[in-house]
Design a protein that fits this description.
With 470 residues, this protein is of the alpha/beta class. The chain has two domains: 155 residues, 3-Layer(aba) Sandwich (D-Maltodextrin-Binding Protein, domain 2); 237 residues, 3-Layer(aba) Sandwich (D-Maltodextrin-Binding Protein, domain 2), CATH 3.40.190. Helix content is 35%, strand content 14%. The chain has 18 helices and 13 strands. Strands 1, 2, 3, 4, 5, 11, 12 and 13 form an eight-stranded mixed β-sheet that branches. It has a three-stranded antiparallel β-sheet with strand order 9-6-10. Helix 2 packs antiparallel against helix 14, helix 14 packs parallel to helix 15 and helix 17 packs antiparallel against helix 18.
Amino acid sequence: MSSTRTRTRSVGGALAVAASLTLVLTACSGGSSGGSGDSSGGGDAGDAIDTSTASGDIDYWLWDSNQLPAYQQCADDFHAANPDVTVNITQYSWDDYWTNVTNGFVAGTAPDVFTDHLSKYPEFVSQGQLLPLDATLEADGVDTGSFQEGLADLWVGQDGLRYGLPKDFDTVAIFYNSALLADAGVDPAELQNLEWNPDDGGTYEKLIAHLTVDGKGVRGDEPGFDKDDVAVYGLGLDGGSGAGNGQTQWSMYSGTTGWTVTDKNPWGTHYNYDKPEFQSTIAWMRSLIEKGYMPSLEAVTGQSSADIFGAGKYAMITNGSWMINQMFGYDGVETGLAPTPVGPDGKRASMYNGLADSVWAGSDNKAAAVKWVEYLGSAACQDVVGASGVVFPAIPSGTDAAKAAFEAKGIDVTPFLQHVEDGTTFLFPITDHAAEITGIMQPAVDAVFTGDAEPDSLTSANDQVNALFN
């Protein structure tokens, strides 16, 4: 019988977050039941927590149901090695997850440890919600240099303190429908050497046009193509415009133009949405919609791009490595992978996003919580996660295990990993004011995609974003 417990939930209509979140948090305490390893007096920036006598129950939350079995195995293995500590795992859907995390901060019911995201943690740090880990990791001899290059640096705040240990990473590649390529007379090998530019789209746009088919069977590069009656789009659009980061929509193109989202990353204080390299990339994206080669924003909003791909409506779509199993899991669809195109700078590009596990500052069992985070960041756990073949763990041995697991399923994941091997990744933008920036850039980029605004309107949006830092 397992000594750890797993709960899966999808809860809506949770307690509303108070506007004065930071003030409320100062009065909150909570978490799971503490044990003899509880360190209520530790956890400040300079204080190491004694994890050697950790005991009691802790709560751990994550959002990806596909990873739940692997982390349950990690929890069981951790308990076997530390029988005085029990890890209770709860999985929520993405939207409910963040609602419940933030509500938990207010109510004092947040988990001791939770999967954290780069778009969320700067705000959590500013509100004092995360426990600095540096002193304890040093005391316990944890090597933060054991992860894939650059991942550990993402979780060091502007104060120089560490607020998470990397758990996995993701990059972007092209998923394609093999049958639709064959129908078009396209050899998949042709996708290995595609070139893109924002002016005419290069050989990449030529392929997209050829793979697009209207309701009468006319291709996008043939006379008589009806852009208002498209049966198969050459390139799908992943659920929206991508707002200000475009991770799966356009970042793999803009990243090859010499453009950067911010003046520095992480912790930049000036955004660059006014630059011609960015605006021309967004203009190119809109041109695909106008030509009928890519679906409109209205057509994809609220829809599953993966399911549309699985229905045979997209010949290709760019998406993240976390989607591998779903994209290869559709009955009757033979899916393939190809690298993103080479851009104006002569290289490919992919946004490099990494998740981590963080400890809630309000946990009443910090010793067990940090000990669990240390285990989550170790090869002992990440090799297990890698062997499950769902994501790419942050430790190289875990990454290798994941590659082997995917290969055992007949999936060559080289198009994702070659970005790491070739050094063509760039970091997910990490700054303050993430929520406010999304609130500005989402409607601004949406308006360009729908034709309600011109690309140069993004300069005004950029001014609004940069005003947040003044």
